[in-house]
Structures are given as C-alpha cells and as structure tokens.
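> forwarded from #structure-qc
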C-alpha cells in the first residue's frame, strides 16, 4: 500500500495517526506530495490524503482511509470513533 499525504493538508494528520495503529500489519509506503499533485488518475482535481491499495484501487476520503487502517489493525470501531471521524470531516475539512 502507498499513502500519499501533503504538509498542511487537513486530512493528513488523522490518516497518519490511524496508519500508526496498523503499523506492522501490512507494508505501507508513505509519500509526501505537493498539494497540487494529482495522485488519483481519474480525479480531475488534486486530492490528498490518498491511500493506494495493493489491488490498485484508491481510497481518497479521510474517514474511509482511517476506517480501513482501524479494521486492518483489528481495532473494533465504536460509536465514539465514528462520531470523531464525522466531526473531523464536517468541522475541520470544510471546503
């Protein structure tokens, strides 16, 4: 897997924290890219963070990436985790 993050991108910190929980469960390469780099070939606008799975598929929602890492780490999600992810997406990542 390859995780693309950008300095200053609002979603980078939570996905890096979630990736830390899954450390050692899968091989993960973390790449820092510029905010204007288009990582996902089928998106018309640049978007980070992005997780490229070994299958070649992409996750480009901060919440989806965090949930993926939580599942990978074996951490059972609860309502509080889901509430935190939704709060982060609606309050911290406003367009």
């Amino acid at each position: 897997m390859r995780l693309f993050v950008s300095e200053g991108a609002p979603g980078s910190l939570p996905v890096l924290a979630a990736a830390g929980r899954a450390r050692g469960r899968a091989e993960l390469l973390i790449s820092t890219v510029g905010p204007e780099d288009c990582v996902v070939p089928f998106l018309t606008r640049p978007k980070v963070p992005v997780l490229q799975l070994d299958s070649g598929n992409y996750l480009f929602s901060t919440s989806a990436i965090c949930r993926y890492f939580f599942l990978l780490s074996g951490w059972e999600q609860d309502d509080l985790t889901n509430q935190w992810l939704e709060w982060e997406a609606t309050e911290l990542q406003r367009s």
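QC bot note: The first helix runs from residue 12 to 21. The radius of gyration is 13 Å.
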